[in-house]
Amino acid sequence: MKILFISPYVSTEAKPYVAPFIRRIYNELQKDINIVLYSFNPNKKISKYLKARYEIKNIIKRGDFDIIHLNWGHTILVIPFFINTKLVTTFRGSDINGLINKHGKHDLTSRLMFFVSKFAYWRSDFSIFVSKDLKNILNVDRNYAVIPSGVDLTLIPKEKKSYLRKCYEFKDNEIIILFCGNPSNLIKRYNLAKEIIEEVKVNWPNIRLVHVWKKEPREVFRMMKASDFLLQVSIQEGSPNIIKEAIACDLNIVSTPVGDTPERIKHLSNCALSKDLSKYEIVKCLKQSIADFQSSTFNDKKRERIKLTLTKEKAAIIRVYESLID
Q1: Domain 153-306, CATH
Q2: Do the first three CATH levels of 2-149+309-325 and 153-306 match, i.e. the same topology?
Q3: Rounded to 10 degrees, what is the CA torsion of 301, 304, 310, 316?
Q4: Which among 146, 74, 140 has a CA at the least distance from the CA of 110?
Q5: Least buried of 49, 199, 206, 271, by fewest C-beta within 10 Å?
Q6: Cα–Cα distance between 235 and 251 in angstroms, integer?
Q7: What are the extents of the domains in the chain?
Q8: Statement: residue 199 has pLDDT above 80
Q9: What dihedral do alpha carbons 148, 149, 154, 155 form, nearest 10°?
């Protein structure tokens, strides 16, 4: 079995924070199967897609691949029309949900991405969705599986929380709230997170928002273990890896009900989902979660780790490959 694994985004030494989950699953798959990675940076330019399409056409001619595995639906644009190779596409969120412009709306680009993803589903021999939510939006009914990205459990720090808090100069009496993501990405709503923290400070003056962006994955894990809460206020998500990583690090979570976040945290102690996307509801959830956190020592997140591993993701993907070449 020989696989061509294509992704427009992948982490590098220079940019370890760009889609690190792609590099992780590729490295994991590489342990068991013959797999080749091709990546390119589209940068919203048609010329980049055309160049990638030309290069991939030549790679396919030389490579004798059994399966081509695309990541994100719009990556279908780099695949030549007439190929006999089996095609798998993983849909990861923005390809189906779209992007938000400065007015808080989905623009023409988002609508085009959705239709391209619809075509990718029709063109693929098998489709993988990282959450049920994405599968339902695309309204699929054949040859698919829901396979969330796995967590690299080796990244979980072995140091105690108290030690890590000292490393980051977090005070013992501070309630540390992490916000992870690109502050300029309007989907993430960083400015809203800051407003929410200012409101909650009326009740808890010792609350502190810590913004994490452009950090290596290992550093992010260390900061999560040193903190008390992860705050996610996104308008939309697919299957946010930061939620699964926070669970693995025993971090409490307050989030809007986006992607597969509800099924990840709704049953966990000191975690909360807002009823909607409004600031009022998120503030209410955060206040309740902090109150519960300060009065409870119960932690039920460790047993969740086994459900979220890279090994499980790898095994599920390999089963998909095997089903296509039997």
Answers
A1: 3.40.50.2000
A2: yes
A3: -160
A4: 74
A5: 206
A6: 21
A7: 2-149+309-325, 153-306
A8: yes
A9: -120
The size of the chain, in residues, is 326
Q: Find all residues with CB under 8 Å of 305, minimum gap 6, and list them.
A: 151, 153, 247, 248
Contacting residues for 262 by C-beta, under 8 A, at least 6 apart: 273
For residue 309, the 8-state DSSP code is B
Listed in order, strand segments (DSSP E) in the chain are: 2-7, 34-39, 67-71, 86-91, 126-129, 144-146, 175-180, 207-212, 229-232, 252-255, 272-273
Amino acid 236 reads Q
HSE at residue 282, side-chain half, CA atoms within 13 A, is 25
Assigned token pair, 42: 């589209």
Tens digit of each residue's pLDDT (9 = 90 or more) over 73-123 = 999 999 988 888 999 999 999 899 988 777 777 777 788 889 999 999 999
With 0-12 CB in 10 A as exposed, 13-18 as middle and 19+ as buried, what is 173? exposed
pTM of the model: 0.91
Spatial separation of the C-alpha atoms in residues 18 and 152, rounded to whole Å: 16
Identity at 121, one-letter amino acid code = Y
One-character DSSP codes across 16-39: TTSSHHHHHHHHHHHTTSEEEEEE
Residue 163, both tokens: 């030690």
- In whole angstroms, give the CA distance from residue 95 to residue 205: 40
Q: Read off the pLDDT of residues 221-230 as tens digits, 9 standing for 90 and up.
A: 999 999 999 9
Per DSSP, the three-state class of 326 is coil
